[in-house]
């Protein structure tokens, strides 16, 4: 497949005029992903509010300039050749709690981290997001991919999501319209030309100390079962009635290493970057894992992460 062209000098000049000092050129993406892997973006733009996100996306759509959005940078593997076009780094993090409503709720912009929402809710005596305190990444990514942990997920909390559609403008979707399934949504499956601006989540009420104690318990459980270090989170979705990690371990791949990329000896569904790891090495390990598990058990593992950029 032919490589995509880099952004042309004239276009870069236009981007400089539009975004000023918020623009970085030929910017390595490793520092913006949880795996610490990724080649350079032609252009990198920072936004710090939903309004800035709307403006940036609108201008780029007008230019027919391809772009992707990175929040926490978890659940993605960026290719070694980087990303053609623009990467928007989403730092829109306004959070507003409605403690008077019944049930109480929170509306947060899509760049907010799940941990921030969970911790702030706990201090207010608002429950329901304890599971999210252990999940890396941003609200936008979590809404998009139906992130979850410890029997909780976004489908269980989401009330509505504010989006910007390239052709229809701003819309508010109720949770039902997201058509959530395990680690997926309508937006993820159909790749619609939309960006997630904010979301409203339903909460409950409880004692702050009890809520915080539960979050500490879940965090300790996560630390005891999941490896430290730079990773993308869970690599594969759990197949129906089974666990990806169990299949990979039983296939004899736990601890398998290619270059500085390793299938974790602690949890086989986590691939660890031990330093200066290339995306190519991780992808080779992914392909080996899928083939081995398929050959041994007849199960084709489906990626939970997304591959981005040029390879």
Structural notes for this entry:
By secondary structure, the chain is α+β, with helices and mostly antiparallel strands. Helix content is 30%, strand content 26%. The protein is built from nine helices and 19 strands. The chain has a five-stranded antiparallel β-sheet with strand order 6-7-13-11-12. Strands 1-2-5-3 form a four-stranded mixed β-sheet, covered by helices on one side. Strands 15-18-17-16 form a four-stranded antiparallel β-sheet. β16 and β17 form a beta hairpin. It is globular and about 55 Å long.
Which helices and strands occur, and which strands form pairs?
Blueprint: H1 9-19, E1 23-28, E2 40-47, H2 50-62, E3 67-70, E4 76-78, E5 83-90, E6 95-98, E7 105-109, H3 114-123, E8 126-127, H4 139-145, E9 148-149, E10 152-153, H5 154-157, E11 158-165, E12 169-174, H6 186-190, E13 194-202, E14 204-205, H7 208-225, E15 230-231, H8 244-250, E16 257-258, E17 261-263, E18 271-273, H9 279-297, E19 306-308
Parallel strand pairs: 2-5, 3-5, 4-19
Antiparallel strand pairs: 1-2, 6-7, 7-13, 8-14, 9-10, 11-12, 11-13, 15-18, 16-17, 17-18
Structural class comes to alpha+beta
Tell me the distance between the termini.
10 Å
Please give the count of helices: 9
Summarize the biggest pleated sheet.
Answer: 5 strands, antiparallel
Measured as a percent range, the helix fraction is 25-40%
Question: Are there runs of 5+ residues with pLDDT below 50, and where?
Answer: none
Give the mean pLDDT.
Answer: 94
H and E order: HEEHEEEEEHEHEEHEEHEEHEHEEEHE
Oligomer: single chain
Principal-axes shape call: globular
| Cα Rg | 20 Å
Give the number of DSSP strands: 19
**Proportion of strand residues:** 25-35%
Give the strand order, joined by hyphens, for the main sheet.
6-7-13-11-12
